[in-house]
Design brief:
single chain, about 35% helix, alpha+beta, Herpes Virus-1, 6 helices
């Protein structure tokens, strides 16, 4: 862990433990609420998928009607380009995407370039700690391009005019079951300016990670979403309430996966909620006791100030011919007359003892032990 990250962790820990852990308790409570919200959404998605019919592409027409606004279904099929099945002049066009590096054919092509920076702080890198903390979060280190062409799901073996369902990706933010076909790390040759950047702790690129992912033709996937008939053609689009749209899993595997996530979220919500209640209760009790203690000390301080106004601190305190060993350690003018309790040190005159007792956290000026009271000593 670098020094700027250690400084950030130290700052966050001090903030979390402030007010006797109240901030930490609120953070845990926020995490518990988020977990409960996710548990509710996952449970609702599990119920929808559990009740959704699992069909093949050829069985869709028996379920759909033209008046339906959309039914949640699970369709298992094979990926193919729409131009290969629509029977129009577009059939003579390829209608597919080709990987630039491998030549593989697919209907979705994602190309990602990630720039890798050095992590050495340099000889004078301490000057850039704050800049690194602030700028690291939003600096763009990754560039991603995504290309898509219309595609459908078909039942294999129903040639030459198979039944198909059109996949509508508009507005979908669900993860796609892409396959990595190209992955290569290329080093970047340093420039003459890179030496100065390294010397002063400025990060500079040292490598470029190039990656290509595709949704290949002939891949078997499941589509989970709202399906309806549009102009007599079955079309399926994503549902925002479901965690899946296109997936390698079948219905049974989805149910098992969501059931496991539901249990994890349920028990996590209970644990985080209990922790937040405990931490917040502890913080409330501690701060309430501190406030009462401060209030009592404040009242005692006001009472002692009132008494000190009526008490003459010079009474019976010789200010002349006092030996050095008996002078008050605070004012160095009057004789020591008051003993602090419980430490028992006789080091102050009555006036200075009253002033010390009036502090918010009174401590003996010699041993620094917290004092509760002082007693005036009279010589017979």
């Amino acid at each position: 862990m670098s020094s700027q990250e250690q400084a950030l962790v130290s700052l966050l820990s001090q903030l979390a433990l402030s007010f006797d852990g109240a901030v930490l308790g609120l953070a845990i409570a926020y995490a518990a609420v988020r977990t409960i919200v996710k548990f509710t959404a996952t449970s609702a998605a599990l119920r929808k998928i559990n009740h959704a019919p699992s069909l093949s592409v050829s069985d869709l027409r028996s379920l759909l009607t033209d008046d339906d606004d959309g039914k949640i279904v699970i369709v298992r099929g094979t990926v193919d380009a729409k131009a290969a099945v629509d029977g129009s002049w577009k059939t003579f066009r390829p209608g597919v995407l080709v990987s630039r590096e491998t030549g593989d054919r697919g209907v979705i092509l994602q190309r990602t370039e990630t720039c890798i920076y050095n992590e050495w702080k340099g000889l004078f890198g301490w000057t850039s700690d704050l800049r690194a903390i602030v700028t690291r979060s939003w600096r763009q280190q990754e560039s991603t391009s995504l290309r898509k062409v219309p595609f459908v799901l078909i039942d294999v073996g129903r040639q030459p005019y198979p039944e198909y369902v059109v996949v509508n990706l508009d507005g979908s933010r669900h993860p796609l079951p892409l396959i990595t076909v190209y992955h290569k790390l290329q080093p970047i040759s340093p420039s003459p300016y890179s030496f100065l950047q390294a010397l002063f702790g400025h990060e500079y690129p040292v490598g470029l990670l190039d990656e290509e992912k595709i949704l290949p033709l002939g891949k078997d996937i499941s589509a989970v979403g709202l399906c309806n008939l549009r102009n007599g053609i079955a079309e399926i689009k994503s549902c925002k309430d479901l965690p899946y749209f296109l997936s390698d899993l079948d219905k049974d595997q989805m149910i098992v996966d969501l059931s496991f996530k539901t249990k994890i979220l349920f028990w996590s919500g209970i644990v985080l909620g209990s922790m937040s209640v405990g931490v917040l209760s502890y913080a409330v009790v501690r701060n309430w006791n501190k406030w009462k203690q401060w209030k009592q000390q404040r009242q005692l301080q006001q009472q002692r100030q009132t008494v000190s106004v009526n008490v003459d601190p010079h009474l019976d305190d010789e200010t002349e011919d006092v030996p050095d060993g008996q002078l008050c350690v605070i004012c160095l003018m009057r004789r020591r007359r008051s003993v602090f309790i419980p430490c028992g040190h006789l080091v102050c005159c009555q006036g200075c003892a009253i002033s010390v007792e009036g502090e918010v956290s009174p401590k003996c000026p010699v041993c620094r032990q917290e004092i509760r009271d002082s007693v005036r000593i009279f010589e017979s």
